[in-house]
Structures are given as structure tokens and as C-alpha cells.
Specification:
Blueprint lengths: L3 E8 L5 H11 L5 H4 L8 H6 L7 E8 L2 E8 L8 H9 L3 E7 L6 H12 L3 E7 L8 H12 L7 E2 L8 H11 L12 E10 L3 E10 L1 E3 L3 E4 L4 E4 L2 E4 L6 E2 L2 E3 L3 E5 L13 E4 L18 E7 L5 H13 L5 E7 L3 E8 L2 H15 L3 E3 L3 E2 L1 E5 L4 E4 L11 E16 L3 H10 L3 E7 L4 E9 L7 H8 L5 E12 L1 E8 L2 E2 L5 E4 L3 H15 L7 E7 L2 E8 L15 H16 L1 E4 L2 E4 H5 L6
This protein binds guanosine-5'-triphosphate (GTP).
Guanosine-5'-triphosphate (GTP) binds next to helix 1.
């Protein structure tokens, strides 16, 4: 055990985590240059396209230093805030962490958020300044930023280039010297944490674990402590992106993959503790919390006959993603669909994209919403995930909404813009730190509702792309909130209802009906578009009637042209939904997103 090193890599997006991981793997001789050809640590297609890591990958490596043989376990962490629960479990499985910062960019928001998680887990942090080959690299300035923002000594930071390989061997030596060896009792009952799980088409549900006490042996009957399920261990392997190696046991201090032969991942939950069924350990490793969705949206097939296909597709995705939750929902406007819960905005985008791409479904997504705690006059608490289901206002005592702690790092020239944006999003300042004369770190509390739509894009555009942002959910706080409804030709379109602060209801109502007016094609009759709070109409626009037949201009003329026009209209209709007599295009359902 004294020659094992378990470490994670934490970094802001694009600071070079995957490239560095690949270099370390290569330096340990675990793969050849040719095998390295493509980056190995990111495996899913969408991850590759977007250059982000969603699922953690790990690898066990051999390394020899001064004639001594070491096992290095590189525990990869998902890089995005949506998956912060998984990040924290990966960190809980590590004894140290490489904190990578881009030598030209400096410390960014995601660096900070991850460092907080690493500190909570008492990890030994090794600052690593990457990309020193870049002409704009300024390692001294970056080391100072690390000290100011995080408060750790960065004078002995490792200077590396993951691209050219400079400093990699010294970095691995530093891991061996500075990351503490794992502690644990090999003779106590089995105690291991699941820090990742996924579905393998051949092997079934797999659990990636870190063993603290005792060992996990092949054929052992183990118990999952959160749900008391007992299962036999069918097989055990050490993780590797290209060549997994089978083993008869995973011992105290080690990481490994456990094969339990289960058909889905729903019982193999990240954060759960595995122990021996007959001789269980007294306490689990840390508290287990099931992944909690923060953002909800309705997903509806455009073709209502595709409802069952959508259900099948969601079932399939959940096999590999136990954080995905959904239940059937009916909308007067959109028909049958599902209310789907996501960990965050990126999670939502990825799921929607996979449903469309991998399963060929055409979907309408309603505007995303956070979850609201609604306290009724009779004392009951209702959790509202769908704005159209907000109870009548006269039954409500108060509404509480989720808040986040946001970290933004910006060049000082955009500080004014960024502060104005945060204030307009109902933010309050908790802290402001100058990292140096050029860059400022802001910490704000603000309602999560304000960031689910468009916040990130606006932040990027007002800072010419330079500001970075990260967040963590903190608590629920009371808000003065109202439900804004939209009526088309006198009928409330339930899928368009949103919950907004009372103070911005009027501006948002006006913007919304104006947007809708542009999007609704002219019909044979006049259509009123109204925004209302309860029965009170606060904004109105009118879509004028069409007046004459669209094909009229082809009348008596070229018949193929006329047919083409009709076909084009028909294709357009596929993406339309009828509200009463009115046809609404898909974009209309997204128009609530563009209300600023
Ligand atoms: P995630 O997908 O979130 O893990 O991003 P990441 O942090 O892994 O970034 P990645 O390894 O994909 O690197 C981002 C970009 O920086 C890529 O274009 C790399 O080629 C480049 N890069 C990484 N390390 C270096 C380096 O040392 N020098 C230079 N010049 N470029 C580098």
C-alpha cells in the first residue's frame, strides 16, 4: 500500500487535462505513441465534439522511480459543474490532486470551484502550470494568481507542457513524492466507495470503486449500503482505457472495476458504499445522496405517435445515467410527453441531443425551469417543477426558489459590465478579490432561475469571451414570484407558462408577446397573443389575418411551382403544433427563452 498513489486532475475546461492525462499514461509506458494518436481519456462522441469530459475515466499505471515500483491510479473527474456530485466522489477516492492552470490564461472560475471540493476532501494539492510552451505563457504571474485566489503556496508549482512533454517526468516524480500513500486497514471488513458507474453492453452495470478497508474478492457476496441490495462479484478488473486487466481481488488502497452482472445502473449509484454482505463495515464512506435534478423541462415528440419511442429512448439512456429522471406529462398544447429532470443545463443539452441524434426523434423542449418549494396556506409544501402547475395564487403562502453561489473571474476592464449583469439577475455580492491588477474574482449569490437561460452566453458576450463562470447550489430562499401565462386566441398555452419575479413580469410579458407575434404565421383570421397574470392581461399583440390564399399568386400559372409551395408548407407543419385553430411553430415554444 505504501507504493500506491491515488490522484485526480482538476482544471478549468481547455486548460489541458486530457492532454496531460494522456502524456502521463504515455510516460509510464502504458501505451505507445501510436496508440496515443487520439486522446484516450474522453470517450463519448459528444464529449469529443465539445471537448468536455462527462464520464470519469480512470487508469492504473506502473512507474519506477529510483528502482522502486509504484502503482499510480489516475482518477479522472468530470470537468463540468453539472456533475459536481460525481466530481466530489472522485475526489473523495483520491489522496491528492493535480491542480492544472493554463500558463497563458491563469486561474478560472472552474479551477476555484474544484479546489473548494478538493479542500473539503483534505487532498494534497500539487499546482501544475501547463502550456509553458506558449509564447504568452507567464508562469510567475499565474503562480501568484493561484496564491491569491486559493491561498496555497505555488512557489513549487510544476511547470509543464503537456503538448511537448517538457516537465512531465518531474511531475510524475512529484506525484510519487508529494501525494500521500493511501491509508486503510487491510484486515477490517470490506469498505469501498463507488465513484463512477456505467453500463457495458457485454458485462452489464459496472462500478468503479476505491477500496478503503479490507478487499473485494471475486465471488464474494457484497452489499450496497444505500439500498441493502446483495450481489455476487462476478469479475474484477483494473481500469485502463485500452487494456483492462483482470484481477482476483482489489485490495485496500486500490481502485478497480467491479462486475456485478446487473442489467442496469440504477442500483449501482455513485457515492454508495460497497461492503461485505455477511460481515459489513459499521459506517459507510461519507454520506450517500442520490443525484438530485436541478433543472426540469418538458420533452415532447413533434409527432404525437412517437411517444412510446421517446419512452424507450429515455429508458435506454437511463441504463447508463442514473441521474436522469422523467415522468409522463400531458400538455394541452403539446400532447403526451415527459417532464425530465437534469443535473444542469449541459446535462439537458446532452440528453436532448442524444435523443435526437442517436434515436432519430424530433422533439420540442419547453423552456427549462428550476424546482420551486411552494408553501400553501394550509401548511402543505408542494414541489413545483412545471410552472403551469403552480397552485392558484390565493392558496399560496410563499414560494421559495433555489439559489447558487456563483464564481466569476473577469479581466478588470469588463468588471462594470459583469457586475451590472449579476445585479440585473438579482445577484448579491459576497466577495470581490483582485487576483492582480488585470483580473478580478467575484463571488455572488443569485437565484438559479436567472442562470438557466442565456446567462452564460450573455456573460461571454459582455466580456468578449474572457469571463469564466462556475456555480454551486446553496439553499432555497423566499422570492416574490408570479406565474406569467400566455394566451393565443384566448386559450392559455400551458407549455409557455413561466415563473418570474413580480418586478420583471411586465417587461417580460411585453417582450414575450412581441416575440410570439413575429413567430406565429398569419392565419385566415386575426389572432390575439396576450400575456397575463391570472386573469389580468398585462400585454397584448395581434397577428393580422392573411387576407388571401398563399397559392393565389401561382393561380393559373405553373402547376409544379404550386405543388412545391404546398409541399413546403406541409413540411413546415410537421414542426407545428395546433393550439385550438392556430398553428404554432416550434420556435414559439422557445420564445420564452428570449425575453431580455
Ligand atoms: P476537458 O475536455 O474538459 O478535459 O478539457 P481539457 O482540460 O482536457 O483540455 P484538453 O486536454 O482537451 O486541451 C485543450 C487544448 O489545449 C487542446 O487544443 C490541447 O491541444 C491544448 N493543449 C493542452 N496542453 C497544451 C500545452 O502544454 N501546450 C499547448 N500549446 N497546448 C496545449
Amino acid at each position: 500500500m505504501k507504493n500506491i498513489r491515488n490522484f485526480s486532475i482538476i482544471a478549468h475546461i481547455d486548460h489541458g487535462k486530457s492532454t496531460l492525462a494522456d502524456r502521463i499514461i504515455q510516460e509510464c509506458g502504458s501505451v505507445t505513441e501510436r496508440e496515443l494518436g487520439k486522446q484516450m481519456m474522453d470517450t463519448m462522441d459528444i464529449e469529443k465534439e465539445r471537448g468536455i469530459t462527462i464520464k470519469a475515466q480512470s487508469v492504473r499505471l506502473d512507474y519506477v522511480k529510483d528502482g522502486e515500483h509504484y502503482i499510480l491510479n489516475l482518477i479522472d473527474t468530470p470537468g463540468h459543474v453539472d456533475f459536481s456530485y460525481e466530481v466530489s466522489k472522485s475526489l473523495a477516492s483520491s489522496d491528492g490532486a493535480l491542480l492544472i492552470v493554463d500558463a497563458a490564461q491563469g486561474v478560472e472560475a472552474q479551477t476555484i470551484a474544484n479546489v473548494y471540493l478538493a479542500m473539503e476532501n483534505n487532498l494534497e494539492l500539487i499546482p501544475v502550470i501547463n502550456k509553458i510552451d506558449l509564447p504568452a505563457a507567464d508562469p510567475i504571474k499565474v503562480a501568484e494568481e493561484i496564491e491569491t485566489s486559493i491561498g496555497i503556496d505555488a512557489t513549487d508549482a510544476c511547470l509543464v507542457s503537456a503538448k511537448t512533454g517538457v516537465g512531465i517526468r518531474e511531475l510524475i516524480d512529484a506525484i510519487v513524492e508529494r501525494v500521500p500513500a493511501p491509508v486503510g486497514d487491510p484486515d477490517s471488513p470490506t469498505k469501498a466507495i463507488i465513484y463512477d458507474s456505467w453500463f457495458d453492453p457485454y458485462l452489464g452495470a459496472l462500478a468503479l470503486v476505491r477500496v478503503f478497508d479490507g478487499e473485494i474478492k471475486k465471488n464474494q457476496v457484497v452489499k450496497l449500503m444505500s439500498n441493502n441490495e446483495e450481489h455476487q462479484v462476478l469479475d474484477l478488473m483494473y481500469p485502463h482505457p485500452l487494456k483492462r486487466q483482470k484481477t482476483a481481488s482489489i485490495k485496500s488502497g486500490e481502485i478497480g472495476i467491479v462486475v456485478l452482472g446487473l442489467k442496469d445502473v440504477s442500483v449501482v449509484n455513485v457515492g454508495d458504499t460497497i461492503t461485505d454482505a455477511k460481515k459489513p463495515t459499521a459506517e459507510p464512506v461519507g454520506k450517500y445522496e442520490p443525484a438530485k435534478p436541478f433543472v426540469f423541462a418538458g420533452l415532447y415528440p413533434i409527432d404525437t405517435d412517437m411517444f412510446e419511442e421517446l419512452r424507450d429512448a429515455l429508458d435506454k439512456l437511463r441504463l447508463n445515467d442514473s441521474s436522469l429522471s422523467y415522468e409522463p406529462e400531458t400538455s394541452i398544447a403539446l400532447g403526451f410527453g415527459f417532464r425530465v429532470g437534469f443535473l444542469g443545463m449541459l446535462h439537458m443539452e446532452v440528453i436532448k441531443e442524444r435523443l435526437e441524434r442517436e434515436f432519430g426523434l424530433d422533439l420540442i423542449a419547453t423552456a427549462p425551469s428550476v424546482i420551486y418549494n411552494v408553501y400553501l396556506n394550509n401548511g402543505d409544501l408542494v414541489e413545483v417543477q412545471n410552472p403551469s402547475e403552480l397552485p392558484p395564487i390565493n392558496h399560496i403562502d410563499r414560494i421559495e426558489e433555489p439559489y447558487i453561489k456563483a464564481t466569476v473571474i473577469t479581466p478588470s476592464e469588463y468588471l462594470g459590465n459583469v457586475i451590472n449583469l449579476l445585479i440585473s439577475k438579482r445577484g448579491t455580492q459576497d466577495k470581490m478579490t483582485y487576483l492582480n491588477e488585470d483580473r478580478v474574482m467575484l463571488e455572488y449569490s443569485l437565484p438559479m432561475n436567472e442562470i438557466v437561460v442565456g446567462f452564460y452566453d450573455t456573460l461571454k458576450s459582455i466580456s468578449k469571451g474572457y469571463a469564466s463562470f462556475d456555480y454551486e447550489p446553496i439553499e432555497f430562499r423566499e422570492g416574490d414570484l408570479v406565474k406569467l401565462d400566455v394566451k393565443v386566441a384566448g386559450e392559455v398555452v400551458d407549455a409557455l407558462s413561466v415563473i418570474v419575479p413580480r418586478t420583471s413580469a411586465l417587461t417580460r410579458g411585453r417582450a414575450l408577446v412581441k416575440n410570439m407575434k413575429e413567430l406565429i404565421p398569419r392565419q385566415l383570421f386575426e389572432v390575439a397573443v396576450q400575456a397575463s397574470l391570472g386573469n389580468q392581461v398585462i400585454a397584448r399583440e395581434t397577428v393580422k389575418s392573411m387576407g388571401k390564399n398563399v397559392t393565389a399568386k401561382c393561380y393559373g400559372g405553373d402547376i409544379t411551382r404550386k405543388r412545391k409551395l404546398l409541399e413546403k408548407q406541409k413540411a413546415g407543419k410537421k414542426r407545428m403544433k395546433s393550439i385550438g385553430k392556430v398553428q404554432l411553430p416550434q420556435e414559439a415554444f422557445m420564445s420564452v427563452l428570449k425575453m431580455d
